[in-house]
Design goal:
heterodimer, A: alpha/beta, D-Maltodextrin-Binding Protein, domain 2, 2 domains, six-stranded mixed sheet, three-stranded antiparallel sheet, globular, B: mainly alpha, MetI-like fold, membrane (chain B), MetI-like_sf (chain B), Sugar_ABC_transporter (chain B), MetI-like (chain B), transmembrane helix (chain B)
């Protein structure tokens, strides 16, 4: 009995110590393979897909439609793991430090997280130019494919979809929907306590603040600015002053802000506030369909435009199944998937493939998607889209907002 | 040999899991300390310095947060203890326990995760919540803004409510059995000698369960001091609770901000260590004085 237990202990110890030394020696270098060979390698494998899993509709679509498609077409099992970049990136960083094999094949990522991941050497690539659908359908010279929050992508990511910030107002309660920041202030004065935006630590709240900055000082003022606090503060001072001016008319006199967008949405559904916002432009339709928002909710944007960005798919440096990852990403760039994704009933995400690179049949797929009058048509959105600013400016702006706007008594 | 072996044996059996726990735990803590001194080679920070400590200690926001965290932890733990003991006493005095088991439902809130507690408080006590709606229907308030703000408020009422909802039943759980055992013996004697119910509780039962309650208080306090989700979901935008502040630095795009987060974590750890020490001390005192637990 005693001897046996010692054996167990040693066994466990051995396993524990071995963990760090495991390395996959059988991995094939796929960079020199052509597409047919990659397809062959990928067949019969499993691909894990890590990314934000906060929307049930999107999750269901990936699990039930996309995964089934991929299984049928390529004999690949797709496994979705809901995890945010600020959770899986530290994991990858640790794996890199320990030199261990990974478990993640595809990550859904963009902006600041991409910038960090690429800088730390956590991503495999360049791979995008290997994908047939990328070469066929994506406008490779457009700035929203070449740059991710101002940083060159260089083939380390393939675009997945596009998002654009829209504001959502309740037309039954508001006289008119504001077309710029000045009108927003008027509305806030007219309906004191009925307008607010999420805290800067929230993704959408932060985007809204950046959008106000664009509206007040313009996109150009920040384009080439150095990422230090003094310069940024000087450049965005008028916008910060505006937010301070707006503050007393906001919900709770601007002393508290909803800490998440979900909270703001909740307050909007309850009529506690009259405006909410979303970085997915057709989200409002989904919300109305589900009965969360009243039928009088309507999306709107500022005349000068709103922030838009592209979200991407990337492959970790230690992905165990890189061939499979390439096949899946390629499939996600196909017109049929992009059209399904565009449908507000599934997701309402803007497509990344260019309509002038599609044939008639493929164009039809998009024309058949029924948007409804509460949403803003895609061409209007595209005309009014302003690119995201460089990722390194974002934390500076968030902390300036805390120091100047939130701290203001 | 046999004696020695008997002494070591349980530890041997525990070894694998201990290795695992301590491996992760100590690795984490060592990393926190290293990073708090600015040693984070993964992002190119390789010099040890006290810079981050100095900067955090100079930041008034840190002290606002510390004060706020201490305040919500203290108030919520105190209220939990008071309510929890009263609840336990109530269960005993009404003898519900012998007739029906339905009183067991109080245990539900011990099992429910903190995020759910936050959600419940939000749906009931926010300005557009159930309570506000009922008040509106009854005509006590004319619109929801008149409803006293209990979530995202600087007094932290919502946060405290959520912690009390989780904490009080926990105290009930740990004191109920002790009270039950005690009340049969000591309290009958006291009642026999002419004490009233309040006197029985205050002079006999309360002092006897005090050590257990204190332990419970320390557990609740330490937890709420270091926990992040409830103040994040229900707390005010300013001051932010200490763990929330640490998280904001942690998830900053600029990985070089990570040390600030770790400095705050070091303070949370030190504080928890002090409390853990108190816990052990108290436990020893209890054992020494042979109070039956």
């Amino acid at each position: 009995m005693f001897k046996k237990s010692i054996l167990y202990v040693l066994l466990c110890l051995g396993m524990f110590l071995n963990l760090g030394c495991l390395k996959d020696k059988s991995e094939v270098d796929i960079s020199s393979k052509n597409w047919d060979e990659i397809l062959k390698l990928a067949s019969g494998t499993k691909v894990t897909f890590y990314g934000w899993g906060g929307d049930e509709n999107i999750n269901r679509w990936i699990d039930e439609v996309v995964a089934k498609d991929i299984k049928q077409k390529y004999n690949i099992t797709l496994e979705r793991v809901p995890m945010l970049p600020n959770e899986f990136l530290p994991k990858l960083l640790n794996e890199k430090q320990l030199g261990s094999e990974g478990v993640i094949d595809i990550v859904w990522i963009n902006g600041e997280n991409f910038f960090n991941a690429k800088n730390q050497g956590l991503l495999y690539g360049p791979f995008a130019y290997k994908l047939p659908n990328f070469n066929k359908y994506v406008d490779k010279n457009s700035s929203d494919v070449l740059y991710d929050f101002g940083y060159p992508v260089e083939g380390f990511e393939a675009p997945y979809g596009k998002a654009q910030l829209v504001l959502i107002g309740d037309t039954a309660k508001l006289d008119y929907l504001p077309k710029n920041h000045k009108e927003l202030l008027e509305i806030a004065k007219k309906y004191p306590g009925k307008i607010t935006y999420p805290d800067a630590s929230d993704f959408t709240g932060s985007a809204f603040i950046r959008n106000i900055i664009y509206d007040v000082v313009g996109y150009e003022a920040l384009k080439d600015i150095k990422p230090n606090k003094e310069d940024v503060k000087k450049a965005i001072k008028p916008a910060l002053d505006f937010l301070v001016e707006l503050k007393p008319y906001l919900w709770r006199q601007g002393k508290a802000y909803p800490s998440t967008l979900a909270q703001l949405d909740n307050m909007f559904s309850d009529g506690e506030v009259y405006i909410t916002m979303n970085y997915t432009p057709y989200h409002v339709l989904t919300k109305i369909n589900e009965g969360d928002f009243s039928k009088t909710a309507k999306a709107f944007i500022f005349n000068k435009g709103t922030i838009s960005n592209t979200h991407f798919l990337a492959i970790p440096f230690n992905a165990p199944n890189k061939a499979g990852a390439l096949v899946v990403i390629n499939h996600l760039l196909s017109p049929s998937i992009q059209a399904q994704k565009y449908n507000p009933k599934t997701w309402g995400d803007l497509p990344v493939i260019s309509s002038n690179l599609l044939n008639e049949e493929e164009k039809k797929l998009f024309e058949n998607v029924n948007l409804g009058k509460e949403a803003i048509p895609q061409d209007v959105l595209v005309k009014h889209s302003i690119p995201e600013m460089r990722a390194e400016l974002i934390p500076i702006i968030e902390s300036l907002w805390r120091e100047v706007v939130l701290a203001d008594e | 040999m046999n004696k020695k072996y008997k002494l070591i044996f349980p530890y041997l059996l525990l070894l694998p899991v201990l290795l695992f726990i301590f491996g992760i735990f100590i690795f984490g803590i060592v990393n926190i300390f290293l990073q708090s001194f600015g040693y984070f080679p993964a992002v190119g920070l390789k010099l040890f310095s006290l810079r981050y400590y100095k900067e955090i200690l100079k930041d008034p926001n840190f002290f606002y947060s510390l004060k706020f965290s201490l305040y919500i932890s203290f108030i919520s733990s105190l209220l939990s203890v008071i309510l929890g003991v009263l609840l336990a006493y109530l269960f005993l005095s009404t003898y519900l326990n012998d007739k029906a088991k339905f009183y067991n439902i109080y245990k539900i809130s011990v099992i429910v995760p903190h995020t759910i507690a936050a959600f419940l408080v939000f749906t009931i006590f926010s300005q557009s919540g159930f309570l506000s709606r009922i008040f509106f229907r009854l005509g006590f308030i004319n619109n929801m803004v008149e409803f006293y703000p209990m979530t995202f408020d600087t007094k932290g009422i919502g946060v405290i409510l959520a912690y009390v909802w989780k904490g009080a039943p926990f105290i009930t759980l740990i004191t109920y059995d002790i009270l039950k055992k005690l009340s049969d013996t000591y309290s009958k004697v006291a009642l026999n000698l002419g004490a009233n119910n309040f006197q029985v509780f205050w002079y006999i039962l309360f002092p006897l369960v005090l050590p257990t309650i204190s332990l419970g208080f320390i557990i609740l306090f330490t937890f709420s001091f270091g926990a992040y989700e409830i103040p994040y979901l229900l707390g005010p935008s300013k001051p932010k609770a200490l763990p929330v502040l640490a998280y904001i630095y942690y998830k900053s795009v600029n990985l070089k901000d990570r040390p600030y987060s770790m400095v705050i974590n070091v303070f949370i750890i030190l504080f928890s260590l002090v409390l853990a020490f108190l816990y052990i001390l108290l436990n020893k005192i209890i054992k020494k004085h042979g109070i039956d637990r």
